[in-house]
Inverse folding.
């Protein structure tokens, strides 16, 4: 069974259709790369999956559980949104770290907030905090930041900030890790740092959706690729199919920008 099923998803802002009949599935351990020009709807799609935007129509299911169904008002209750977001870990292109917290505290924060809602939190506060801290440190070590845990975001490079953001997204053990142009704010050297981390996660069979403009990376790391244009999925398939044998003229035109010269 697919870990993620998206059926006929639509989204409009006022009278402008941004997502038009989006359907795809993702299996556990797969990496889906979403490519396309700016304004094609890629980021809006991720934001709908994470419920940062409410879809206008369609269905979203994770592990067989219906998270959103436009025909079922019960799936649109605001009180359930936070719980639904736990299925997805989102890494933003601009890091979105809290400047007043250290790298370690940024990674720990969400899990500590959730822990406080547990009925036994007060009685087990020290134990729970110690466990969360140990897990956060382990993630930062995995990101190669063992000597930067006490640093604040302004003391870190862009690549280091993005690796903290990845650790933070992993902290809640999401079903699917989502990246929204994770290297667009970085210079080439720092881009390589972050792509190496993402490649390592792919090698560990972490289920991921990556919106990216790094075509060579997408071709190398992906299980499947989606090309979006004007809010639609115009082409989808294996990296070989999309990159080497595209069928749609718009796909060919888009990819030609990265092969010229």
């Amino acid at each position: 069974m697919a870990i993620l099923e998206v059926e006929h998803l639509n989204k409009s802002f006022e009278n402008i259709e941004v997502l038009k009949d989006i359907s795809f599935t993702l299996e556990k351990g797969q990496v889906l790369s979403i490519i396309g020009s700016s304004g094609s709807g890629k980021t809006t799609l991720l934001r709908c999956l994470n419920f940062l935007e409410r879809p206008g129509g369609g269905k979203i299911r994770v592990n067989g559980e219906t998270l959103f169904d436009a025909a079922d008002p019960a799936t649109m209750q605001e009180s359930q949104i936070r719980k639904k977001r736990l299925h997805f870990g989102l890494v933003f292109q601009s890091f979105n770290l809290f400047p007043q917290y250290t790298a370690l505290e940024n990674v720990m924060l969400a899990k500590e907030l959730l822990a406080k809602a547990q009925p036994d939190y007060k009685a087990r506060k020290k134990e729970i905090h110690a466990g969360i801290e140990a897990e956060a440190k382990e993630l930062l070590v995995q990101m190669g930041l063992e000597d930067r845990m006490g640093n604040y975001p302004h003391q870190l490079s862009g690549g280091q900030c993005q690796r903290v953001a990845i650790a933070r997204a992993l902290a809640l053990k999401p079903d699917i890790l989502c990246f929204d142009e994770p290297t667009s704010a970085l210079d080439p050297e720092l881009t390589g740092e972050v792509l190496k981390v993402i490649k390592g996660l792919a090698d560990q069979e972490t289920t991921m959706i990556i919106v990216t403009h790094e075509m060579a990376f997408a071709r190398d790391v992906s299980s499947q690729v989606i090309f979006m244009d004007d809010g639609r999925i115009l082409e989808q398939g294996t990296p070989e199919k999309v990159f080497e044998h595209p069928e749609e003229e718009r796909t060919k035109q888009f990819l030609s920008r990265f092969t010229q010269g």
